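In response to reviewer comment 3 from the previous cycle, which asked for concrete evidence that the modeling workflow produces usable outputs, we include below a single protein chain processed end to end. The sequence was submitted unchanged, and the resulting structure tokens are shown without manual editing.
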Amino acid sequence: MSPATLATLCALGWGAFLGAHLALNGRWWPWLAVSLLPPPLFAAVPLALLVASAVTGSGPGAVLAACCLLAGGSQSGINYRSLRRGSGTAEAGTGIRVVSWNTQHWNQGREPDRFYAFLHTLPADVYLLQEYLNGFEGGEVWDIDDEERLRREFPAHHLAIDNNSVTLSRFPLAAPPVPVGACSLRVDLRTPGGVLSTYNVHIPVQLTVMNPLGAAFFRDMRRRHLARLREYDALVADLLANPHPFLVSGDFNTSAAIGDIRRMPRAARDAIGANRSLFPASWHARWRLRLWRIDWVFTSAAVRAEQYAFRDPGGLSDHLAQDVTVTTTIEESNH
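The workflow returned the following structure tokens.
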């Protein structure tokens, strides 16, 4: 077999895999395990095939590889908008700063003072904190009560706690907090321009680490798939019924290569264009090589992300903290 023929066959094989991925991803629950591939592979593999086809003189291979690169671009996690976007336009002090962070079971096993010191290094108008729970034994977690410390550390913020989520806001609450599904929390805030709905989101993880060849693995994956669908359905239903401008942020446990993220409504715009990184990644914070963005920020049309960065928590969590500044046209949109 000639090198050119081999390059063509490899490109054809990747094209067949990519076609199956695009067709089944987010629609057929067993494919969830396949969609956990690192998103950069959807750019790296066709690029390598394109180079191999060019070197071996395989025209069909080059065409196939180029088509795969274009078709799989949305799966790669590459932030193409960072190439054409300048720095944020919001002037200092004019925007609303939001810090969203999966705390990895709050301050369990760590020094509480370090935990709160880190939060204070990111002085925000609004904090959206996930995994307000503690303990892990046999797959079980239990509730904690850190409300007194929270109020002492953030006396200028209003506090809402539910669904294992904590929302702290410098702006007063416009209505009682609303649990969304079993893992997220909606809090409407009365900002100077009008009501802004914040959604503190935590979608359940896809898999449990266990023997992938056993029946229990597939039963657990299907159960978790259904739980994820319930959370996405509850979130989307609330967003579609919400008359207010919104900001949605948290740990979606969903990379760009996982089709579940397509369940978000069109009105929810990915804020990643405000990030300056070509390949933004939020997990795993303790690894030098970070290959996945599973923490997201979405905004409605009246909310514009001006600056967006990921902050290293210094070993306090396996998730980087999301730090986003938004400006709003809420006042205009409410008329």
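Residues 215-241 form the longest helix (27 residues). We consider this sufficient to address the reviewer's concern, and the full set will be provided in the supplementary archive.
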